[in-house]
Write a structure and sequence with these properties.
mainly beta, globular, disordered N terminus, 9-stranded antiparallel beta sheet, Beta-galactosidase, Chain A, domain 5
Length: 392
């Protein structure tokens, strides 16, 4: 095999911006971003969406779009972050609220939980960022383990978005998993099975089939977006990713995406043999997860058009990465501090002459000495697919 033609270049923004905006039904007049402090919570709005976030726990307790409430407002609903399960289960709490940026074009707020005696000896900092005229709320999180903290480990590290019942009846993960979901009546009247998280549906469009969140696992690196949409309400709710460099374990691992009434993202890729983050006493470590986008869209043509629009938005985000607006963050170098590797991956095997470099994953990772990129959780990984000729 050989690799050649290495050079540095800067990312370029492709002319895709207009293509997703014209799909949006009834695009609103321009309005600056507003931040309203309500004491225990804050409200971000821009004339398109309005998000209410609780300061102490970083939960999005309300997300209004076109008059629709886009989160489940039940006590165990909302949009929230969590770590692990059982006795070590933790959601951020006791956070310190601050405003990082506040301009008419952009507001970035932070909720930071400082470690004291919690199950995980890391500081957890959750950011929500709203831009002018956008129908999406950017999210990023930072985990920090100063040298003075004790040894710790993190397995499951995720964000969960719980949706209102029966608002969005369609699921879209990929071309195969794209159908109408059971409604709340169907879920309530389903039969239990020997596995607690699997039910057998007895009513509705999927009667006779089984339903489980693990039905919708996917390789994150293969997808730019997943979520739910409606042919009734003509709106959609998506997670959109412009890059995957902050996920653990490289592009060959999978984890949860969408499911009945919920949207997941698991940063640690902890299911199916994913690695666990282990930090030693005296070890200094810090990592940013994101930014990614909580994206809302609308179109009278319904779910398939909304799904197509979400995929276009993912292309737009990819072309814009790294985002120029995420400044003053050492964990997130801007474009001028980044480079690129170009080359050709060639396979020459006389016993397998049909094997080529076409479609191969080519990447850069930095596991610990003696480690493997497939079990690497502390740092960032950079991967791409080679083209039909092995070029990358």
């Amino acid at each position: 095999m050989e690799s050649s033609r290495l050079r540095i270049r800067s990312p370029r923004l492709a002319p895709l911006i207009w293509s997703w905006t014209v799909l949006l039904w009834g695009w609103s007049a321009q309005a600056q971003v507003s931040l309203v402090d309500n004491g225990s919570s804050v409200r971000l709005s821009n004339g398109v969406i309005a998000a209410t976030i609780t300061k102490t726990n970083a939960k999005v307790t309300s997300l209004i779009y076109r008059g629709f409430q886009m989160v489940n407002t039940a006590s165990n609903g909302y949009i929230y972050f969590s770590m692990d399960g059982g006795s070590s289960y933790e959601q951020p709490n006791g956070c310190i609220y601050s405003v990082k940026i506040e301009t008419p074009d952009l507001v970035d707020i932070s909720m930071r939980r400082v470690y004291t005696h919690q199950p995980h000896a890391v500081d957890i900092e959750i950011h929500y960022l709203l831009r002018r005229d956008d129908s999406g709320l950017y999210v990023y999180a930072i985990l920090d383990h100063p040298a003075g903290y004790p040894a710790t480990g993190v397995g499951e590290w995720r964000m969960v978005w719980k949706l209102p019942p029966d608002l969005l009846e369609q699921i879209r993960v990929d071309d195969l998993r794209s159908w109408e979901m059971p409604n709340s009546y169907d879920l309530a009247h389903a039969e239990p099975t020997g596995i607690p998280e699997i039910i057998r549906l007895t009513t509705g469009v999927r009667a006779g089939k089984y339903d489980c969140k693990y039905d919708f696992n996917a390789n994150y690196w293969e997808l730019g977006t997943w979520g739910h949409a409606s042919n009734v309400n003509n709106i959609g709710a998506w997670l959109v990713f412009g890059n995957h460099e902050f996920f653990n374990d490289g592009p060959t691992k999978q984890d949860l995406t969408s499911a009945s009434g919920i949207i997941h993202v698991h940063f640690g890729m902890n299911h199916y043999g994913g690695s666990t983050l282990s930090l030693g006493a005296g070890e200094t470590w810090r990592k940013i997860y994101g930014p990614y986008l909580i994206y809302l869209n609308a179109d009278p043509a319904g779910a398939d058009t909304l799904w197509a629009d979400a995929k276009v938005r993912a292309q737009v985000e990819t072309e814009a990465w790294p985002y120029s607006w995420l400044t003053d963050n050492p964990e997130y170098p801007l474009a001028k501090a980044r480079g690129a590797i170009e080359g050709r991956f060639v396979v020459q095997d006389p016993l397998k002459p049909d094997v080529t470099g076409s479609g191969a994953w080519v990447g850069v990772a930095q596991p610990d000495p003696g480690g493997n990129w497939q079990d690497e959780s502390k740092r960032y990984q950079y991967w791409t697919r080679a083209d039909v000729d092995g070029n990358f």
